[in-house]
Design a protein that fits this description.
It is a single chain. This protein is of the alpha+beta class and 369 residues long. Among the domains are: 122 residues, Immunoglobulin-like, CATH 2.60.40.10; 85 residues, Immunoglobulin-like. 27% of the residues lie in helices and 29% in strands. It contains six helices and 18 strands. The protein has a six-stranded mixed β-sheet, with no helix packed on it. Strands 12-13-16-15 form a four-stranded antiparallel β-sheet, with no helix packed on it. Strand 10 and strand 11 form a beta hairpin. The longest helix has 50 residues. The chain binds 2-acetamido-2-deoxy-beta-D-glucopyranose (2 copies).
Length: 369
């Protein structure tokens, strides 16, 4: 099956025979090596010429020998008897013939959404009995540079040595790196030089080296870049700036804390005032607390009453209470608001034969004593 495996003299002999009989021939340009970036698509060319002697049915077969594999050819796609067979599971939905009708002489293969694993040696084999020919194409799928990182290694002080570093976390080697300055004189520091790929070493840094730098990384299939801002300052200035920043931040925090504290206090005071007012209002008629419970109860059963403000409740409540056979309400209405157990004096109770017992009584402010 694999013509490539046939020793050279035999191939030459075969070619001689084929040449003599004039038969099917793949005529695509000499180029047989392709490199593409991951995710891209490619057309692997395989155009052929037929001769009238070739009378058998046309068969086109594409197969792959993966780069990092010792496996034999893996069929990818087959055209036979007018039908297309897509056999290779990993690629079945990403490969198709470029031509709608390969019979016209174009057996080229299109691959979309290239993956790194698609790298390898592709063979196009065209057969139309007695004619047959094949061609091998090498495809390399590479990763573009990506996930770039630019940073300064060293202190950014006048007179110190530092490194501008640049790194692409992604990308198929070899990766090239290039530093440039975007601001000021647009010239890289004179006392600097590239000491290894992506590393620009600067000796005796000076103030005018400050500015924005750009590092670009390339490989054969793509490019990416990152930026870096260098700020070379006097050591004291650096310390001063840091101290200033720290003190400034601290002051800011303290100020903020004070403001928050004051606000909280003000709100608390307001709340407290409200509470105090509320308590005072309750104090106005503390003995009514029990009756007001009764009122609420009645009120809830007579929703038509609307709001339960004491003014519109008083008359109604009194009218209702007069019918309730409770000793609490048997008292004259004038007494009702001032009702309390303390009204009946202890000596009177004793005279009535009652045993003196500590009875919880409501004090003026409504709490139990
Ligand atoms: C095949 O690939 C080539 C180049 O990548 C492209 O121009 C062409 O449109 C593709 N054809 C089909 C049918 O996808
Ligand atoms: C560093 O640079 C300054 C000027 O920026 C120069 O005066 C000084 O001599 C240099 N020091 C060294 C050690 O090269």
């Amino acid at each position: 099956m694999r013509i490539g495996a046939v020793p050279l003299p035999c191939t030459a002999l075969l070619f001689l025979c084929v040449g003599l009989t004039r038969s099917l021939k793949i005529i695509t340009p000499e180029r047989d090596s392709f490199e593409k970036a991951q995710g891209e698509g490619i057309r692997l060319p395989c155009e052929f010429e037929l001769i009238s002697d070739d009378t058998g049915p046309l068969t086109i077969e594409w197969s792959l020998v993966p780069k990092d594999s010792l496996q034999s050819d893996q069929p990818i796609i087959l055209y036979s008897g007018g039908a297309i067979y897509n056999k290779y599971p990993e690629m079945s939905n990403r490969v198709h013939f470029t031509s709608d009708d390969p019979r016209r002489g174009d057996a080229s293969l299109n691959i979309t959404g290239l993956k790194l694993a698609d790298s390898g040696s592709y063979q196009c084999r065209v057969m139309k009995h007695p004619g047959t020919d094949n061609k091998k194409l090498l495809l390399t799928v590479s990763e573009r540079p990506g996930k770039m990182k630019c940073y300064v290694d060293g202190t950014q002080e006048i007179g110190s040595d530092l490194k501008l570093k640049c790194e692409a976390k992604e990308g198929t080697p070899p990766l090239q790196y290039r530093w440039e300055k975007l601001t000021g004189t647009k010239k890289l520091p004179l006392t600097g030089k590239v000491i290894e790929p992506g590393v620009f070493f600067v000796k005796n840094a000076s103030e005018e080296y400050s500015g924005t730098f750009k590092c670009t990384s390339d490989n054969r299939v793509g490019t990416d870049s990152c930026l870096l801002v260098l700020y070379v300052a006097h050591p004291t200035n650096v310390a001063g700036t840091i101290a200033g920043a720290v003190i400034g931040t601290l002051l800011g925090v303290v100020l903020l804390a004070v403001i928050v504290f004051c606000c909280c206090r003000k709100q608390k005071e307001k709340k407290y005032e409200k509470e105090v007012q509320h308590e005072i209002r309750e104090d106005v008629a503390p003995p009514k607390s029990r009756t007001s419970t009764a009122r609420s109860f009645i009120g809830s059963n007579h929703s038509s009453l609307g709001s339960l403000s004491p003014s519109n409740m008083d008359g109604y409540a009194k009218a209702q209470y007069s019918h309730i056979p409770s000793d609490e309400f048997e008292r004259p209405p004038s007494n009702a608001p001032n009702y309390s157990t303390a009204k009946v004096s202890a000596p009177t109770l004793s005279r009535m034969g009652a045993i003196p017992v500590m009875i919880p009584a409501q004090s003026k402010d409504g709490s139990i004593v």
